[in-house]
Design goal:
Blueprint: E1 21-27, H1 33-44, E2 49-54, H2 61-71, E3 77-81, H3 88-100, E4 106-109, H4 121-129, E5 134-138, E6 145-147, H5 151-168, E7 180-183, H6 184-188, H7 199-212, E8 217-221, E9 223-225, H8 236-254
Parallel strand pairs: 1-2, 1-4, 2-3, 5-8, 6-9
Antiparallel strand pairs: 4-7, 5-7
Helix pairs in contact: 5-8, 7-8
Length: 260
């Protein structure tokens, strides 16, 4: 599924082993999950680089990340330590800024908790190489699925996506999804200083900016697996923020006032 518009040319920008790509993994209290997901990622795509963005986790996740980086002789693992916990969106923007400054061609969002399968990341890369500017790993397109997800959480997720489609007039079925790959040109077109959304809203925000920028969007099917270790960090405040912001963006779009 895509939006009409300019997009980037269809030449390959990321190698089959993940060369030229940076996977940004925000962490807060993920010391048990982080080594598992990084090992899976580097085993499935040996050429990809990883940036762990840790928000001063009190459980020592940052130290675990430093140890992983020190032990990686290939220099594929990098760590950013942030001094405050101010949301998923800010962590990703910090990671994107770091990656853009180092000439990566594709930047990826991936959770640390194992809900996104690194073994399926090649599907997103294939779509990027076919010309997409933003590729979303989708639970809700044919072939997509969820595993061990509480029915209440799935109900909220499907409801949020339906609401966003109706409010924004978008055809994206999983616009709240957090497993995605961006060509650098898409991120370079955003004004990071103007982005202050978080959680669900952050994902919708960036996808909506890409749509309004005329970039090609695609969804590819993935399997979303509920975390086995730790607890979800999503809360009601983030959901309320998304509801109100999406309503405003939809109204602005209908009145001809696009995002800046």
């Amino acid at each position: 599924m895509s939006s009409d518009g300019q997009g980037a040319s269809a030449h390959a920008v990321v190698g089959t082993a993940g060369e030229n790509a940076l996977v940004v993994i925000p962490t807060y209290n993920e010391r048990e999950n982080l080594p598992i997901i990084v090992e899976r990622l580097l085993t499935s795509l040996g050429g990809v680089h990883v940036l762990v963005v840790d928000d001063s986790s009190p459980d020592g996740t940052g130290e675990v990340a430093d140890k992983l980086a020190a032990e990686d002789e290939a220099g594929r693992i990098h760590v950013m330590h942030r001094t405050e916990k101010d949301g998923l969106g800010k962590a990703y923007l910090a990671g994107f800024t770091w990656g853009l400054a180092r000439d990566y061609r594709v930047l990826v969002e991936m959770d640390a908790d194992g809900s996104h399968a690194p073994e399926q990341l090649h599907r997103l890369f294939d779509a990027v190489n076919e010309g997409a500017g933003l590729v979303i790993g989708s639970r809700y397109v044919p072939g997509g699925s969820t595993v061990n997800w509480p029915k209440r959480r799935e109900f909220l997720s499907r409801g949020a996506n339906t609401y966003a489609r109706l409010a924004l007039g978008s055809k994206i079925r999983d616009i709240t999804a957090g497993f995605r790959a961006y060509r650098r040109e898409v991120l370079e077109s955003f004004d990071f200083d103007a982005i202050d959304s978080a959680g669900y809203c952050f994902q919708i925000d960036l996808a909506w900016r890409a749509i309004q920028g005329g970039f090609v969007l695609r969804e590819v099917p993935i399997t979303f697996t509920e975390r086995a270790i730790g607890e979800s960090k999503m809360d009601g405040g983030v959901i309320t923020e998304a509801f109100l912001q999406v309503a405003r963006w939809g109204m602005d779009s209908r009145l001809g006032r696009g995002k800046k």
